[in-house]
Give the backbone structure.
Amino acid sequence: MPDDNTVLIGKKPVMNYVLACITFFHGGAKEVSIKARGQSIGRAIDVAEVVRRRFLPDVKVKNVGIGTDKIMPLEEGRQLTNVSSIEITLER
Amino acid sequence: MPDDNTVLIGKKPVMNYVLACITFFHGGAKEVSIKARGQSIGRAIDVAEVVRRRFLPDVKVKNVGIGTDKIMPLEEGRQLTNVSSIEITLER
């Protein structure tokens, strides 16, 4: 799946990301991938659920993957930290 | 799968829930289900990742399901609210 159909979830309101997903599907995408890390993970699920329950009922959750990413510390001398991640693949 | 092999994630430290999962597996469970809602969802993924990466490398993520639960409001006259949920099934 090409990376351009990926919505990266940050701190913005859920509806911003919902709109991004809908735009991909309206542009002809068959699959859209929603990715998030750490505290944004809950919002990623909110986005997937709002897209398929409120706006595009023909969209299904194809796959949900979880994992761990290593984060480089901002300050020197500190250790790598682990952060959980999620990738939700929606399919039309 | 029987409901007794389920760990419900709340606001306690991640290691509390990790220990609960490990206890189930050490008691002979083949599958353990980790469930969370709303703001605890990120912690559920942390628990699954710590269990399988740090303590039980033979445990795999069998399935991850996402959904929406309806929450009864505490005060009368307010509407039902939706909250996202996750269920992670670990398998040995």
Summary: The first helix of chain A runs from residue 14 to 26.
